[in-house]
């Protein structure tokens, strides 16, 4: 079932979870260990992130360094197929621009269509660690809207090879990312919303937000989207604080603000266990307010750590 169909049929706020593929060399069991405790809550869908390949420099025997192309977290398509097979729940693979050509993207989309996976989240993705700004793969997409248009074209039966015959269109439900505190590269919120509306106008069916810790950011974001004529569902993304270190790492990595009350409470803790408790209680209060507002879905960023999510959801439902 498509994400938008789940939302249209809902009789309350739905649940969804996002997981990371395991590092290369680890088995699918690590995915099952993350999801098994969460499946009791009957999520409507599971998101699986996609990670671009990176260049690393490897020292050879002669002392010279060789530039090597590696993908540390492969397997998103296979993981989604395994999730559908094991749990009979819809999977939502992320599709990213970075590290892929248009042809490789098309091949991945064809594989997903063969598997009957008809949901996607389309994002640009992050720059390589060695890059100051995002650079696409030669022959790839620079912007998420370009990737979105490729998916929309396939939904219309338009592939990269124009001379194909007996073409069957795909039927993907396409989500895109939204930023309640604006994307870090956008000069201001107005510009960020302009580009978001362009993606919706180009064919995006729903929006999933970046994590936030102050619900006022989400409610303001939704209000501004509606004022611009963006009518698609807007799903809030939630992540609980789990370590003291995240006081500094989350704002730096995700370009978000932590409310003063939350930071004050975290600074009074002395251990990660105490910080997790503060983070859990904060997330529960966040979610209760969002539930009262009848948001379509509570989407939890698990970071492959199910325990705090289990405790939060148990407190909510």
Report on the structure:
This protein has helices at 3-9, 29-35, 76-87, 102-114, 144-155, 189-202, 215-227, 246-254, 260-267, 272-292, 306-316, and strands at 14-19, 45-48, 54-59, 65-70, 90-96, 119-123, 173-178, 206-211, 234-238, 297-301. It is of the alpha/beta class and 317 residues long. It has a single domain, classed as TIM Barrel, CATH 3.20.20. The strands form 2 sheets. It has an 8-stranded parallel barrel, surrounded by 6 helices. Strands 3-4 form a two-stranded antiparallel ribbon. Helix 4 (102-114) packs across helix 5 and helix 10 (272-292) packs across helix 11 (306-316). It is globular. It starts with a helix and ends with a helix.
Could you give the count of β-strands? 10
What's the level 1 CATH class? Alpha Beta
Uncertain spans, ≥5 residues at pLDDT below 50?
Answer: none
Cα end-to-end separation: 23 Å
Largest sheet: 8 strands, parallel, barrel
Number of helices: 11
Q: What percent strand? A: 15-25%
Shape: globular
Question: How do the SSEs run, as a string of H and E?
Answer: HEHEEEHEHEHEHEHEHHHEH
Any idea of the CATH topology? TIM Barrel
Strand order of the largest sheet: 1-2-5-6-7-8-9-10
Domains (count): 1
